[in-house]
């Protein structure tokens, strides 16, 4: 069995559980996460013994999203000397598309994926659960499409997958404001199917649903997912290419530098539109 650095993977009775483990605080998404995610879901997709997958986070939180300290080398070349040149922008575009492909591997997995979310699910965490089939939450879960607050246009999939889940109006509200919503609001707008009293109950419910799915003819279930995914796959892929090019062109800004400095200095940023 592969020893993963940012995940654990366990399988029993045709159901696999993939658990985010960090190593960043709050299961923040660093280099190991982005490297391992597509490998794991590629393996589970190819494993005929796996018929359904539960995705969850270790500890109290699903994920704090992108691990900014660990991923700062990604932004550094854009904000330093020569930031306006083609080479750092081309490298950044490649990195964005690799990260997009990592999350798309979850959506492309032929086996249904159920996310059990507790605590914080921020930014990249929301990108990740937007790529699964069903989302369940515990009552303490909180969600945030927070990229605007750190001077970034969300580019890993939330803006392209969430409209089909919660509708345009709710996506625009969450994306423009970067606000947090609780589990009750998430259920109301359709982001999660059900809310459970605590983390254990949410995870148990996810496994119960996975077992129910796994009891059905596996090729039929995979066929259903393929048919459901077909109408949106091209639209999402086109949108991801567009936003990756947009960010490679326009992401470098004084506001982005200010946002990153504010994170490290633990203060509120002051944005000037530059």
Q: What's the story with the biggest beta sheet?
A: 6 strands, mixed
| Helix-strand string | EEHEHHEEHEEHHHEHEHHH
The outline comes out as globular
What is the number of beta strands? 9
State the share of residues found in helices, binned by percent: 40-55%
**Strand order, largest beta sheet:** 1-2-3-4-6-9
Distance between the termini: 49 Å
Strand content: 5-15%
Number of helices: 11
Give the uncertain stretches in residue-range form. none
**What integer value in Å does the Rg equal?**
18 Å
Please tell me about this protein's structure.
The protein has helices at residues 31-46, 68-79, 86-108, 124-130, 158-161, 163-166, 168-177, 183-188, 199-214, 218-250, 254-265; strands at 7-12, 15-20, 52-57, 113-117, 120-122, 134-138, 142-144, 180-182, 194-196. The strands form 2 sheets. The chain has a 6-stranded mixed β-sheet, with helices on both faces. It has a 3-stranded mixed β-sheet with strand order 5-7-8. Strand 2, helix 1 (31-46) and strand 3 (52-57) form a beta-alpha-beta unit. With 274 residues, it is α/β, with parallel strands linked by helices. It contains 11 helices and 9 strands.
What is the strand and helix layout of this fold?
Elements: E1 7-12, E2 15-20, H1 31-46, E3 52-57, H2 68-79, H3 86-108, E4 113-117, E5 120-122, H4 124-130, E6 134-138, E7 142-144, H5 158-161, H6 163-166, H7 168-177, E8 180-182, H8 183-188, E9 194-196, H9 199-214, H10 218-250, H11 254-265
Parallel strand pairs: 2-3, 3-4, 4-6, 5-7, 6-9
Antiparallel strand pairs: 1-2, 7-8
Helix pairs in contact: 1-3, 2-3, 3-10
């Amino acid at each position: 069995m592969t020893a993963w650095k940012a995940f654990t993977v366990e399988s029993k009775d045709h159901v696999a559980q993939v658990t985010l483990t960090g190593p960043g605080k709050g299961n923040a998404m660093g280099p190991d996460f982005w490297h391992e995610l597509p490998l794991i879901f590629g393996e589970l997709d190819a494993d005929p013994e796996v018929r359904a997958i539960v995705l969850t986070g270790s500890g109290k939180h699903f994920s704090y999203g992108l691990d900014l300290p660990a991923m700062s080398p990604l932004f550094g070349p854009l904000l330093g000397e020569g930031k306006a040149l083609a080479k750092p922008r081309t490298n950044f575009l490649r990195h964005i598309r690799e990260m997009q492909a990592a999350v798309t591997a979850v959506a492309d997995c032929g086996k249904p994926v159920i996310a059990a979310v507790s605590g914080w699910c921020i930014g990249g965490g929301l990108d990740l659960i937007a790529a699964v089939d069903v989302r369940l939450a515990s009552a303490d879960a909180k969600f945030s499409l927070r990229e605007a607050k750190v001077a970034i246009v969300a580019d890993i999939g939330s803006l392209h997958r969430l409209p089909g889940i919660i509708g345009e109006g709710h996506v625009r509200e969450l994306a423009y404001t970067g606000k947090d919503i609780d589990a009750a609001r998430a259920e109301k707008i359709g982001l999660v199917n059900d809310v459970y009293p605590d983390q254990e109950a949410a995870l148990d419910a996810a496994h119960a649903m996975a077992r129910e799915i796994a009891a059905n003819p596996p090729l039929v279930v995979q066929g259903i997912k393929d048919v459901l995914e077909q109408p949106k796959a091209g639209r999402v892929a086109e949108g991801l290419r567009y936003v990756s090019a947009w960010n490679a062109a326009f992401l470098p800004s004084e506001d982005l530098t200010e946002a990153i400095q504010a994170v490290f200095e633990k203060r509120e940023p002051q944005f000037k539109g530059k």
